[in-house]
């Protein structure tokens, strides 16, 4: 009886999902295999957001292309074939087509930065747990379940893959490919080598945590050093002219009134 109720519940949930999720099969037929593979890579790096499935993104690309083309043709018909409007249409159509990919790429970049920032603190937590007597996978599970960011989600997914039978080496390599974060790749390679040669995982965690902390500090110092250069252009374009007008304007007016 319990099994029958569970089966009915699963079937009803599946049918509800099918009714709610629209079918974008026509959009998948309008793209090439390489384009779908590129979108799949961006989708993986962005964390596979539930609201942006691949078929829906392909449909959005088609919708954006059609909307940009329609707006361009409308503007051309209203302006009588203006050259500037034609150029704007030529630029707007491919931009509209690749706009969903650009948004997905931006989300992936933000996620990679968040993983890089969280890595040092997560390694510290894992190191403390390992030194307290937990195994490496138990420490990883503890850090994954206690964390809230994208790194915690990836750690939990990696553990789930190992629990279903995927070898640890393959699970770590899959983690590298999904995230594409150099610091995380360095950590996973160190863990793979430690597992292969029998090196103490606590010493590996301590070394990696120190290196990640130093790298994070260096990135912060580098970003701080770039601030004056980034401020220079807005300062010259917007602030200095207004300052010159406020300081030298009355003097120029007085000189003109005196000699004219």
What can you see in these coordinates?
With 260 residues, the chain is an all-alpha fold. It is built from ten helices and no strands. It has helices at 2-20, 25-28, 33-45, 54-79, 83-131, 136-146, 150-163, 168-179, 182-197, 201-259. The radius of gyration is 28 Å and the shape is flat.
Give a count of the beta strands, DSSP E runs of length 2 or more.
0
Name the shape in a single word. Answer: flat
As a percent range, the share of helical residues equals: over 70%
| Average residue-wise pLDDT | 83
User: Which percent band covers the strand fraction?
Assistant: under 5%
As an assembly, this protein is single chain
Spatial extent as radius of gyration: 28 Å
Q: Tally the helices: what do you get?
A: 10
> How many angstroms does the end-to-end distance come to?
104 Å
Name the poorly predicted regions.
1-21
Structural class: mainly alpha
Compact description:
With 260 residues, this protein is mainly alpha-helical.
């Amino acid at each position: 009886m319990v099994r029958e109720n569970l089966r009915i519940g699963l079937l009803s949930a599946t049918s509800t999902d099918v009714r709610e999720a629209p079918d974008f099969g026509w959009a998948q037929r309008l793209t090439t295999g390489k384009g779908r593979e590129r979108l799949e890579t961006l989708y993986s790096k962005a964390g596979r957001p539930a609201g942006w499935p691949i078929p829906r993104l392909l449909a959005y690309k088609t919708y954006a292309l059609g909307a940009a083309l329609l707006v361009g043709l409308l503007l051309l018909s209203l302006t009588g074939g203006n050259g500037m409007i034609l150029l704007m249409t030529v630029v707007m159509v491919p931009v509209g087509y690749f706009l969903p990919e650009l948004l997905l790429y931006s989300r992936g970049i933000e996620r990679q930065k968040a993983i890089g920032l969280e890595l040092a603190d997560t390694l510290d937590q894992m190191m403390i747990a390992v030194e307290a007597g937990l195994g490496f996978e138990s420490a990883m599970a503890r850090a994954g379940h206690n964390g809230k960011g994208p790194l915690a989600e990836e750690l939990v997914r990696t553990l789930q893959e190992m629990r279903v039978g995927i070898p640890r080496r393959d699970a770590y390599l899959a983690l590298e490919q999904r995230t594409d974060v150099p610091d995380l790749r360095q950590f996973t390679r160190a863990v793979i080598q430690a597992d292969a040669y029998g090196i103490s995982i606590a010493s590996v965690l301590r070394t990696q945590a120190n290196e990640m902390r130093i790298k994070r500090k260096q990135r912060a110092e580098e970003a701080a050093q770039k601030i004056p250069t980034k401020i220079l252009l807005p300062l010259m374009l917007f602030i200095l002219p207004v300052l010159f007008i406020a300081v030298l304007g009355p003097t120029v007016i007085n000189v003109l009134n005196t000699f004219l």
